[in-house]
Automatic annotation (TrEMBL):
Domain HTH marR-type: 28-163
Record bears the keyword Signal: no
Name of the protein: DNA-binding transcriptional regulator, MarR family
Source lineage: Bacteria, Bacillati, Actinomycetota, Actinomycetes, Pseudonocardiales
Keyword DNA-binding in annotation: yes
GO biological process: response to stress
UniProtKB keywords: DNA-binding
Pfam families: MarR_2
Annotated transmembrane regions: none
């Protein structure tokens, strides 16, 4: 498979080693490999950057989910479950870990005593605000090889792919 408009990467070398696919199959396989490699590199670099803050990527994702909820920075356990796409046991375990660190607290919903709300503490809110800037800076730096227009086009194409795989968001 030839590299279009630039130097060859490791995926090009790998694809040379797996002949016998149609052009459509080779293109899909190369794209899947590149997507996985880029996602792995992004996650590895983000983990490295966040380690300096003593925070794991999953911890930041949960804290950021609560921050995006807006004041008072609380969500039901069910809303966290939907947003984070992990099992209920996974959410419970993650919340418990963040609660031990003093970054979140669980409280009974005053409107429905059967419901548990998870909310950011003041310490958790300060922490997520402090670390999100670093995460954003790392993402921007790592993707800067692509022009803003290319990033937007890639965003649009990947959104279309995700909608076809996961369905449209609510």
């Amino acid at each position: 498979m030839a590299a279009a408009g630039g130097p060859r990467d490791r995926v090009d070398i790998l694809m040379d080693q797996v002949p016998g696919h149609s052009e459509a199959e080779s293109t899909a396989k190369a794209l899947a490999l590149r997507l996985r490699r880029v996602a792995h590199r992004l996650e590895t670099e983000l983990r490295r950057e966040l380690a300096a803050f003593g925070i794991e990527l999953w911890e930041l994702e949960l804290l950021a989910t609560l921050k995006r909820a807006g004041p008072p920075y609380r969500l039901s356990a069910g809303a966290l479950l939907d947003s984070m796409r992990v099992t209920s046991g996974g959410v419970t375990k993650r919340v418990a870990g963040l609660e031990r660190r003093g970054w979140v607290r669980r409280e009974t919903d005053p409107a429905d005593r059967r419901q548990i709300l998870v909310g950011l503490t003041d310490t958790g809110l300060r922490r997520v605000r402090e670390v999100l800037g670093t995460k954003t800076g790392t993402e921007t730096r790592l993707l800067s090889a692509l022009s803003p227009a290319t990033q937007q086009r890639l965003n649009d194409d990947l959104r279309r792919l995700l909608v076809s795989l996961e369905g449209a968001a609510d």
